What does this fold into?
Amino acid sequence: MSNVGILVALKCALLGNPEGTVGVCYDEYDIGDGPGMSIIFENSEYDGFSKEESEAFLTIIGKIPLFYKFNNVMHLSQDFEKGFFNEAIKEGKRIQDSTDRPI
It folds into this structure.
């Protein structure tokens, strides 16, 4: 099962983002003995996370269909600027807002 389209929130401040910032997985890869996920955040910063790093720094908050083929970081930045990830980030914020409200 693909991790592309997984929505995450940061457990702590990272890459110029405060705790709770939403990100979306745009690529997956093998690192060492396990999987890695590449995440782009609301401020356009991106990074790769091993399974251990994902558990330490990220909370999975949802998943959406995301059809994205990662080529390189130049294209990634251009796609972000064109708004390709806007709906994914908006959905992540909506999920966060709905789970933060008391019942």
